[in-house]
Design a protein that fits this description.
The structure holds two protein chains of two kinds. Chain A is built from 23 helices and 27 strands. By secondary structure, chain A is of the alpha/beta class. In chain A, the strands form nine sheets. Chain A has a six-stranded mixed beta sheet. In chain A, strands 3-2-1-8-9 form a five-stranded parallel beta sheet, with helices on both faces. In chain A, strands 12-13-14 form a three-stranded parallel beta sheet, with no helix packed on it. Chain B has two domains: 64 residues, 2-Layer Sandwich (Phosphorylase Kinase, domain 1); 79 residues, no CATH class. Classes of the chains: A alpha/beta, B alpha+beta. At the A-B interface, helix 11, helix 14, strand 12, strand 13 and strand 14 of A face strand 1, strand 2, strand 3, helix 4 and helix 5 of B.
C-alpha cells in the first residue's frame, strides 16, 4: 500500500477492483465502512462476483475477469476527454510534459520494438528525448508529449469499447465515470484498493499500473485517503518481499546483479535510475551505491573490501528468470535437483497442480519446513500417485509457529509490528531460521572438510551472532537496520549509509527501525489515547510500531500539498510547509524536510524517480509503456481492440519453450470462464488443520451462475465435474445469482467461481481436489505472476 | 434457566434484538464478562500479531504456567489499543488459538526414502546431516562459476528455496542471506503466487 489501512477512512470514493475485502480482509474492511458511514464515501466494487463487499457498496459493476485494463482505460479516457484531471497536480507531479523519443508507436496491438522471434520488446526504446544539457525534454504541447500520446492511446477506450470488452453496460460505466471524474478536484480524493484479483493475470502489472495512472491524473497519489493500496493475503508477504526472498531483487528492492557486471560501478550503472530533470532528487538512484555497498558489508564483513569490489563476485548472478514457474519448469526439465519449502506448499499453491506434482517427482530431494503436514510433504502419496514410483527423497522438518517465536510482521500498510514469543516451540519443533542456520553451518563444515565448488562465499558470509547456529531475531533485526562500523552505533537513517565500506545495512528501507534507543517496531502508542498518539488527527499514529521507510505513513506525501506547500484539502493534510519553522510538518515528509517549496528551484515532488515525477509513461515494464488491454491466455473471445494480437504478445510460454505438449484450452472445448478465490473462514491451505474453521466451511464446492445451472440441470448440492485442459475437480455445486451472465462483444459469457482451499491434507482428507489443477502454467510478462484468475473450463453434472 | 440456541433465536426474533435483563431475567453480557475475567485472571499478557492475512491485527495472548511447568495458552483476543484493528478479529483471527495449540502438529523430523511408502521418524541430526550432504552435492553438481559468455556468475542452478509469507521478517532476511550465500538464484515467496 502507498497508504495504510486506517487511512482509507479519509477517502471520498473507495474504488475496489479484483478484491473482496469484506470477506478476505474483514477487519481491514472496517476502514472502508467508516469512510462510508462517517463521511458518506461512495464504494464502487468492480468484480466478477457479487460478494459481501458488493452488498454494502453503492455500485457493483460486474466485470469479466482479466479486463480491468479496459475498465481503467475507459476511466482514463473519460477523465482526459472531459478535462477532469487535476491539472495543477499533473503539471507539477507527473511526467505528462516529457517528450517521448522519436520512433514511439503503437499499432495493431503492438508497441514499437517488438521482436516476434524472442517474443520480447526492447523497452529501452521507450525513452525520452534529451536536450543538450542531457536532461529529458519537456513540452506538453509537443505531439509526442506523454499527455498527447496518452490521449491518443486511450481514445480507443470509449464507453462502447469498455462495454464490449468488460461486459459492463455503458450507462452503468458512465455513471461511475462521472463520480470518478469528480475526484480530480483538489478537495476530493479517491483510494484504489485491489488484491490478487488484479495481479493474477498475464497482464497483472499493467492492471495495477492502470489504476496508478488514473490516480496520478486525478491527483490522488500521496494524499491521505488516496493512493494505490494492495491488500496482501499473508501475514508477512510484505516483510519478506522487502527482504527479498525473491529472485529478482536484493533486500530493499535493489536489483539482483546480472551476468556481465564485474564491479559495483557496473552494477550501479545498469541498475540505478538516472537523474532526468535538473531539480529531480533521484534519491534512490543517487544512493544506490551506498545501499549496495552497505549490504555487501553486512553480508561479507571483513571479506568485503574496496580492493575486491566489496566481494561483489560472491553474489550469485542468475542467467534469467528464476521465479516460481521457472523453478518448476526447471524441475520438469530435470535440471532442478532440490527444493526447500517453508510455509508454502507447492502442490496447492502453484498453477497446474498435476504438472507441479510431476515436477516434484522429478526432484532428487525435497525439504518441507512446516508446522503441519502439507500437500507438498505428502505429495508422494497424493491420490493417484504410486509412492513406489516416486524417487524423490523427502524431508519433513517440524517448524515452530508464529506464536512460538518473536519477530516482526510487516502488514499491507508497511507497518512493521513486533510480536513477542508467547509459547515455547511445541515438542521437537524448531524455528525456521534455526533450521536454516544449522543447515548452513553443516554445509559450511562439509566444505571445510571436503572442499568443493567455489566455497569462498560460504566461508565469508558473516554470522555475527552469539550462537551462529541459533541466531536471535533481535540480533538479526539490528543487522537489518545497520550500523556505523567506526563507532559501532546503530544507524538512525539510511541517509547516513556510505559507499566506502564504513557502514552496514541488511535492508536500507528498514534502517532507522532499530536505533541505539531500541526496536521501534515494538512501540504501542495506539488508540488508547488518540489525542496524544495521533497529534495531527490524520491517523498516522507515528509511535505505534514503525513504518518503512523512515516511519513514513503515506508514500509520496509531498504531493498531498500544492506548489506552495499548502494541503490540497486543508481538512485532510498529509504534510504542509510551516514558514515559521521552515520545516514540513505532519507525516514524515517524503521530501527534504527543510526544502522551502516557495523558493525557485525547489526539488521536484517524487524524490525516488529519475524524473522527479510520477510516471504516466514508463519503460520499467516488459509489455508496454502504457497499459493496454490483452485477453487472458485462455479467453472466450478475440480481443476487440486488435484481434490479431489478442493475448499479450510477451508472456513467456514455458511448455512451448521446453517442447512440452500444449496445455492451453480453447473455448470450443472449454466454453466457460473460471476464476479462483478465498472464503472468509479459510486462509489458503493451513486452515484445513483448524477444527472450528473446517466446521464453519467444511467442503469444497464451486459456484455456478443460476442461468447456466438451469441450462445444465444443475441444482445446489449436485456433484459436478469442472475440467480444464489441465485437470479437473469433482465437487458440489452451489447455484447462485452472485455470478450473473455477461454480454461480451455480442456473446453471452458465464463465469464460474472456484474457492481454492481444499486438498488431500487436513482434517477432512476426503476433500482431495486441488483447485489449481485447473489453472494455466503461464504468468505476467514482467512479474511472471501466474494467471490464476482467468481461465477456461467446462462443467458437467455428474 | 438454560438458554438454548433455539430459545435464543426465539427471543431475538421476538424483537428483543439486544439480549438484556428484560428478556431473560438476567444479564448474559455481564456473565460472559465475569467468565472471561475468571479465565484470564492472573495470566501473563503477551503481544502478538495475527498469523493469517496482512491486515496485521494486533493480538493479546494470555498464558499461565501450569503446575507441570508447561506454559498454557488460555485465550487470544484482539488488542483494543491497535490503530489497525481496535480489538476486532475475523473468524480466522478469533480461532487463532486452535492454530496455536493443535494435536495435528508434526511431532518430529520425518524422512521418506526414495520409493518408500511411509515416513520414518528420524532425529534432527540425521535429517540435517543428510540434508546438508544433499545441498552440498547438488550445489557442487550444478554450480556455475563462469557462464558461456565468460562472465563470473557464481551461481547454484540446481537448488531452489521458497517460503516466508508465514515467518518473521528477520527469519526471512536470514533465509535470503544464507541462501544467496550458498549461491542460490531460484528464490521465491508468496507475493508472486
Amino acid at each position: 500500500m502507498t497508504n495504510h489501512w486506517r487511512d482509507i477512512r479519509h477517502a471520498d470514493v473507495v474504488m475496489i477492483n479484483g478484491a473482496n475485502p469484506a470477506e478476505a480482509h474483514p477487519v481491514g474492511f472496517q476502514w472502508i465502512m467508516r469512510a462510508k458511514l462517517e463521511r458518506g464515501a461512495k464504494i464502487v466494487h468492480v468484480d466478477p462476483r457479487f460478494t459481501r463487499t458488493s452488498a454494502v457498496a453503492d455500485t457493483h459493476l460486474r466485470i469479466r475477469v482479466g479486463t480491468d485494463v479496459a475498465y481503467f482505460g475507459g476511466l482514463i479516457n473519460y477523465v482526459l476527454q472531459n478535462g477532469l484531471y487535476h491539472k495543477e497536480y499533473v503539471a507539477h507531479a507527473t511526467n505528462a510534459a516529457f517528450v517521448v523519443k522519436q520512433g514511439y508507436g503503437f499499432s495493431d496491438g503492438l508497441f514499437n520494438g517488438y521482436d516476434p522471434q524472442t517474443r520480447l520488446y526492447d523497452p529501452t526504446l521507450w525513452a525520452y528525448e534529451t536536450g543538450a544539457d542531457g536532461f529529458a525534454k519537456t513540452d506538453v504541447s509537443h505531439p509526442r508529449s506523454v499527455l498527447n500520446l496518452m490521449r491518443e492511446h486511450y481514445s480507443r477506450y470509449t464507453p462502447e469499447m469498455v462495454e464490449r470488452i468488460t461486459g459492463i453496460p455503458r450507462d452503468q460505466f458512465l455513471e461511475v465515470a462521472k463520480l470518478v471524474g469528480q475526484m480530480g478536484r483538489p478537495d476530493k480524493v479517491m483510494t484504489v484498493i485491489y488484491a490478487v484479483g488484479l495481479t493474477h493475470h498475464t497482464t497483472g502489472v499493467q492492471l495495477i499500473r492502470s489504476g496508478a495512472v488514473l490516480q496520478l491524473l486525478l491527483g490522488n497519489m500521496g494524499r491521505p485517503g488516496g493512493g494505490m493500496n494492495a491488500e496482501r493475503g499473508h501475514a508477512n508477504i510484505q516483510g519478506n518481499t522487502d527482504h527479498a526472498i525473491s529472485w529478482e531483487v536484493l533486500p530493499g528492492y535493489l536489483k539482483v546483479p546480472a551476468p556481465g557486471q564485474r564491479t559495483v560501478a557496473d552494477y550501479v550503472e545498469q541498475s540505478a535510475s538516472k537523474q532526468l530533470r535538473p531539480t529531480a532528487i533521484n534519491y534512490f538512484g543517487t544512493n544506490y551505491r551506498n545501499f549496495m555497498v552497505s549490504l555487501l558489508k553486512a553480508w561479507y564483513g571483513n571479506a568485503a573490501t574496496k580492493d575486491n569490489e566489496f566481494a561483489f563476485d560472491h553474489l550469485p548472478k542468475p542467467a534469467g528468470n528464476s521465479s516460481w514457474l521457472s523453478i518448476f519448469d526447471q524441475a520438469l526439465q530435470g535440471k532442478m535437483e532440490g527444493v526447500m519449502l517453508s510455509g508454502m506448499t507447492a502442490t496447492s499453491i502453484g498453477p497446474d497442480s498435476n504438472q507441479v506434482l510431476q515436477a516434484l517427482s522429478n526432484l532428487k530431494w525435497l525439504c518441507v519446513m512446516d508446522a503441519f503436514p502439507t500437500t507438498s510433504s505428502e505429495f508422494w502419496r497424493a491420490p493417484g500417485i504410486d509412492p513406489a514410483k516416486v524417487e524423490t527423497e523427502v524431508f519433513m522438518l517440524p517448524a515452530s509457529h508464529w506464536i512460538e517465536k518473536e519477530g516482526s510482521f510487516t502488514n499491507s500498510g508497511r507497518w512493521v509490528q513486533w510480536k513477542e514469543q508467547v509459547l515455547p516451540p511445541e515438542g521437537e519443533a524448531r524455528h525456521d531460521h534455526w533450521i536454516l542456520a544449522d543447515l548452513f553451518g553443516r554445509v559450511r563444515d562439509l566444505y571445510r572438510q571436503q572442499g568443493g565448488k567455489y566455497p569462498a562465499p560460504v566461508f565469508d558470509l558473516t554470522l555475527r551472532y552469539a550462537d551462529p547456529r541459533k541466531p536471535q531475531l533481535d540480533e538479526i533485526a539490528k543487522e537489518i537496520n545497520g550500523r556505523d562500523l567506526a563507532t559501532g552505533a546503530q544507524l538512525e537513517t539510511f541517509a547516513d549509509l556510505k559507499d566506502d565500506g564504513t557502514t552496514t545495512a541488511g535492508d536500507w528501507i528498514y534502517t532507522g527501525h532499530y536505533p541505539d534507543t531500541g526496536n521501534l517496531a515494538k512501540r504501542r502508542d495506539g488508540v488508547q489515547d488518540p489525542k496524544k498518539n495521533d497529534p495531527t488527527g490524520m491517523d498516522f499514529y507515528p509511535s505505534w510500531a514503525w513504518s518503512w521507510p523512515a516511519n513514513r505513513r503515506v508514500l509520496y506525501n509531498r504531493a498531498s500539498a500544492d506548489p506552495q506547500g499548502r494541503p490540497w484539502d486543508p481538512k485532510r493534510p498529509g504534510i504542509q510547509w510551516d514558514a515559521a519553522t521552515s520545516l514540513w510538518v505532519g507525516d514524515v515528509p517524503d521530501y527534504p524536510p527543510d526544502a522551502d517549496p516557495t523558493k525557485p528551484g525547489a526539488p521536484l515532488w517524487f524524490i525516488m524517480t529519475g524524473e522527479g515525477m510520477g510516471r504516466l509513461f514508463s519503460n520499467g515494464v516488459a509489455d508496454g509503456p502504457f497499459p493496454e488491454h490483452y485477453e487472458p491466455i485462455e479467453s472466450p473471445i478475440q480481443n476487440p481492440l486488435h484481434p490479431a494480437v489478442s493475448a499479450t504478445p510477451v508472456a513467456f510460454l514455458y511448455d512451448q519453450a521446453a517442447g512440452r505438449p500444449n496445455r492451453f484450452g480453447t473455448s470450443s472445448e472449454f466454453p466457460y470462464v473460471a476464476t479462483s478465490y478465498r472464503l472468509t473462514e479459510h486462509e489458503h491451505y493451513i486452515t484445513q488443520q483448524v477444527e472450528q474453521l473446517v466446521q464453519l466451511q467444511p467442503e469444497a464446492f464451486v459456484e455456478v451462475p443460476a442461468e447456466l445451472a438451469r441450462e445444465k440441470g444443475i441444482e445446489t448440492g449436485d456433484r459436478v465435474r469442472v475440467s480444464s485442459k489441465r485437470g479437473k475437480l469433482e465437487v458440489r455445486a452451489v447455484v447462485t445469482k452472485r455470478l450473473g451472465p455477461l454480454q461480451v462483444d455480442g456473446k453471452k459469457i458465464y463465469q464460474i467461481g472456484i474457492p481454492i482451499h481444499w486438498g488431500f491434507v487436513g482434517i477432512k482428507t476426503g476433500q482431495h481436489w486441488l483447485a489449481n489443477a485447473l489453472t494455466p502454467f503461464v504468468g505476467d510478462a514482467s512479474a511472471r505472476t501466474p494467471e490464476f484468475k482467468a481461465f477456461l473450463v467446462n462443467i458437467e453434472k455428474m | 434457566m438454560e438458554v438454548t440456541r433455539r430459545h435464543f433465536l426465539q427471543l431475538s426474533s421476538a424483537g428483543a434484538g439486544v439480549l438484556g435483563v428484560s428478556a431473560l431475567g438476567f444479564d448474559l453480557t455481564q456473565a460472559t464478562r465475569i467468565r472471561q475475567h475468571l479465565r484470564i485472571e492472573g495470566a501473563t499478557v503477551s503481544h502478538s500479531v495475527c498469523p493469517y492475512c496482512a491486515v496485521g491485527c494486533a493480538l493479546l495472548a494470555y498464558t499461565k504456567k501450569a503446575a507441570s511447568g508447561k506454559v498454557e495458552l488460555l485465550q487470544i483476543e484482539g488488542d483494543p489499543d491497535s490503530p489497525v484493528n481496535e480489538g476486532r478479529l475475523c473468524p480466522k483471527g478469533a480461532t487463532a488459538l486452535q492454530l496455536a495449540v493443535s494435536r495435528r502438529r508434526v511431532a518430529s523430523p520425518l524422512y521418506r526414502a526414495p520409493g518408500a511408502a511411509e515416513w520414518t521418524r528420524v532425529s534432527w541430526d540425521f535429517a540435517l546431516d543428510k540434508l546438508a550432504r544433499n545441498v552440498k552435492a547438488s550445489r557442487d553438481r550444478t554450480f556455475v562459476t563462469v557462464d558461456a559468455d565468460g562472465n563470473v556468475v557464481n551461481r547454484c542452478e540446481g537448488v531452489a528455496f521458497a517460503g516466508g509469507a508465514a515467518f518473521s521478517s528477520e527469519e526471512g532476511y536470514l533465509a535470503t542471506k544464507l541462501m544467496r550465500g550458498l549461491g542460490l538464484v531460484y528464490l521465491e515467496q508468496q507475493a508472486r503466487v
